[in-house]
Amino acid sequence: MININPTEQFSDLVNLIQTLRGPNGCPWDKEQTHESLKSNLIEESYETLNAIDNNDQQNLSEELGDVLLQILFHSDIAEKNDEFTINDVIYNLQKKLIERHPHVFRLKTSLSSNEVVSQWEEIKKQNLSSKGLTSALDSVTPNLPGLMYATKIQRKAASYGLDWKDIDGVMEKLQEEILEYKKADTKTSKQEELGDIFFTLVNFARWIDIDSEIALQESTSKFITRFKRIENYCTRTETKFNELSFEEKENLWEKSKSTKI
Question: 125 FRET partner, CA 20 to 30 A, in 56, 74, 155, 184?
Answer without folding.
Answer: 74
